[in-house]
Structures are given as C-alpha cells and as structure tokens.
Specification:
Elements: E1 2-5, E2 9-20, E3 30-39, E4 44-55, E5 60-75, H1 87-96, H2 101-110, E6 113-130, E7 135-149, H3 162-166, E8 173-185, E9 196-206, E10 218-230, E11 239-252, H4 256-259, E12 289-306, E13 309-325, E14 337-348, E15 352-360, E16 369-374
Antiparallel strand pairs: 1-2, 1-16, 2-3, 3-4, 4-5, 5-6, 6-7, 7-8, 8-9, 9-10, 10-11, 11-12, 12-13, 13-14, 14-15, 15-16
C-alpha cells in the first residue's frame, strides 16, 4: 500500500484484508483488516480491525480495533477557533534562540508540531431493534488510548516548541471512554452510499472509575446527520449529493489529542484534515465544542470489470466548513473555517474505495493539500 496526504507525507506498507460474503448479509458477513504502515515523516499506523455481523439471529454486530500509532507530525497551534500558526512568531523565536543553518530549519519544521506514541483499543457493538427499511440500532462500547509524549527514540516533547510552552512535560496517561447511543440507517450501499440517510446520537464519559487519568474526566455528547440524495431518478449512484452535519461537545477536561476525537459510532477527528476540513492541516482547530458541515457532489464516469470484479470510477467536488470553541462560552465567538476542492474515486467490489483529493483553504493561504486515502470521507 502506498498513499500520500499533506499532513503525514508519503505512506508505505502492507494492507491485508479478508471479506466473507454469504449472499444474505450486507455489506458482508465479516471482515478482517490488517495493516503495517508508516510514512516518510515517521508516522506509524499499525492495526488490526475486525467487523462481525449477523450474530444473535442477525441482531448483533461487533466491531473492534487494536492499533499502535506514533507520530512526529501532529500539528499543534494552540486551542480554539482563532489559532494562526503564525510563521512570524516562529521565526522570531528561532532568531531569539540564535539558531542558524540546519538547526534553524529543523526548529522551524517542529515549532508547530508535537510528537507522541499512542497504543489504543476499541470495542463496539450494534444491536438491531428493527431492520431496513429505516433500520434502528442501539450501540455502545469502550475506547482506551494511552498517550506518551515523545517518539520511538526519545521521550518528552521537543524543547522550544509551541506545544512545550503550554505543556513542558507533555501529557501522559490513559483516556478510558465508555459510550452509548442510538442510530437510524437507511443507506443503499454502506461503503459508497448513493441514497438514503444515516443519523445517530450518543453520549460518552471518561472517568477514573474505569481507568482514565484523574485530570482527564469528562462527559460528552455527539450527534451526526448524513443524507445521500440521488440527483438522477432511478440511478445507482451516477450523480449523488451527499451531506454530513456533526456536532460534538464535552464538559470536563482531557488531553490535547483527545480534544480532536469525536464520539459516535465510528472514528472521526475534528478541526481540519481528511475527516473534517480538507485543505486545512489536520486537527489545527481543537476545542471542547465542535460543529461541522460537509457537502459533496459525487459523480460516476464509468463502470467496468476486471475478471469478475466490478469497478466504478468517478469524481467528487466538496466543501467542508466548521466552528470550534475552546470552551462552551467561546463557541460562536470565532469565525468559521472552511476548505474546498475536488478529487477522484475508484470503487472495487462495492466495499473497497480509494479517494484522491485536493483541498484548499484561506486558513492555509490557499496552499494545495493532497490526500490519497481509502474509504469515503463519509
């Protein structure tokens, strides 16, 4: 596997996936995804994911993920919706430190970044109360993330960075989160929807009583509305308008990395990047309250087969916008941020999707942010 995104650089590794079909259960009976993956910016994503459907007479679905993640490329420009990632400030700090040559270049590359190691595990269940049309499920589960500042060679944050000014010793400890919610799903084709809706609402909590660091206790709420509207009658995805609106908020405190993670039935991060605002550096905007609006116009150019495997090739134009509040009282005080752009989609056998996007945003001076990833953004 090879990919690229503007935040982590070129990625390379091995991805091995198994899908078991039984002819009745959609999108599959079970799936297993194994990945060993790293990038040119020393970012590691090594994981095992499983997804088992049709348990307990077809009512129960269990999903799990075990992952080792490490990064030297995580962005940190501060908290809230008015962070600037000001290069003039960075240059002034470098000048005050008397740095020149390679030392100055290294300092400039690191000033608005943080490094961390984070193994984590997730176990979730979904229990079906009624089937499609208009399927309703309750869901819940647990997520545990153990954060250690540093990298594989050295512990602690880099000195004289923006992050180290706020957290001189870094942030270390476990976030243990229990979650419960309800969803309604009427999508056609789960991996690449072209009609229907998917809505959900959930609550979650992090507490010392189930393992969290005492400084990182909070209560959170999340709600997401996704709608897929076919623009050509009686088509199977030739032209689709897709929309996602998401709100997430916590009361309490947590670490910098966890501030960008949302609740809900799946993994998602806010504040910029491929999940939430393409064209803006990943998780640039962090806070306790997040609102996101995304719209995509998806079109299919052609369908074809290689052997017995069906493929679809198409394109997308998108607009992502959001707002963040460092605290609840700050929400709405900062202007919204947005990114826009377009890209291509290649879908293999309905379930494996490759996206290649270009994003731009005034927040980043309209610089070009490319992304090559698997799966649809939503």
């Amino acid at each position: 596997a090879v990919n690229y995104n503007a935040d982590e650089g070129f990625g390379f590794g091995v991805v091995f996936g198994i899908y078991r079909y039984n002819g009745n259960t959609a999108p599959y009976k079970w799936a297993l995804d194994n990945q060993i993956f790293m990038t040119t910016r020393n970012v590691h994503h090594h994981r095992i994911i499983f997804d088992i459907l049709d348990l307990m007479g077809g009512k129960l679905r269990i999903l799990g993920r075990v992952k080792f993640e490490a990064s030297r490329a995580e962005h940190y420009c501060g908290l809230g919706g008015e962070v600037t990632c000001d290069t003039d400030l960075r240059d002034q700090v470098g000048e005050d430190l008397g740095l020149t040559g390679d030392e100055l270049e290294t300092f400039e590359n690191r000033y608005y970044k943080m490094r961390y190691i984070m193994p984590y595990g997730i176990v979730r269940f979904r229990y079906k109360l009624r089937d499609k049309p208009h399927r309703v499920e309750i869901f819940g589960g647990w997520r545990g993330n153990y954060v250690t500042p540093g990298d594989l060679a050295e512990s602690g944050p880099w000195k004289d960075t923006f992050y180290s000014e706020d957290f001189p010793e870094g942030e270390k400890g476990l976030v243990s989160v229990i979650q419960a919610g309800i969803m309604a799903d009427n999508r056609r084709n789960e991996a690449a929807p072209y009609d229907g809706y998917w809505v959900e609402a959930s609550v979650r909590g992090s507490s010392r009583y189930w393992g969290s660091k005492s400084d990182w206790e909070y209560f959170g709420v999340n709600t997401i509305l996704r709608v897929y509207l076919p623009l050509i009658p009686n088509n199977d995805g030739a032209l689709v308008l897709a929309n996602r609106v998401a709100f997430d908020g916590i009361i309490g405190n947590t670490n910098t990395l966890d501030l960008a993670w949302s609740g809900g039935s799946g993994l998602m991060t806010y504040g910029g990047g491929t999940d939430s605002a393409r064209g803006i550096r990943a998780r640039r905007y962090r806070g306790k309250v997040d609102l996101l609006e995304q719209v995509e116009l998806r079109g299919r150019f052609t369908k074809f087969k290689i052997g017995n495997i069906p493929f679809e090739f198409g394109g997308v134009a998108f607009l992502d916008a959001g707002m963040v509040g460092e605290e609840w009282s700050d929400f709405g005080a900062s202007p919204p941020f947005f990114g826009t752009g377009g890209g291509l989609r290649l879908t293999m056998d309905q379930n494996f999707v490759i996206q290649a996007d270009i994003g731009l945003s005034p927040a980043e001076g309209w610089g070009i942010f490319p992304y090559i990833e698997t799966g649809n953004t939503f």
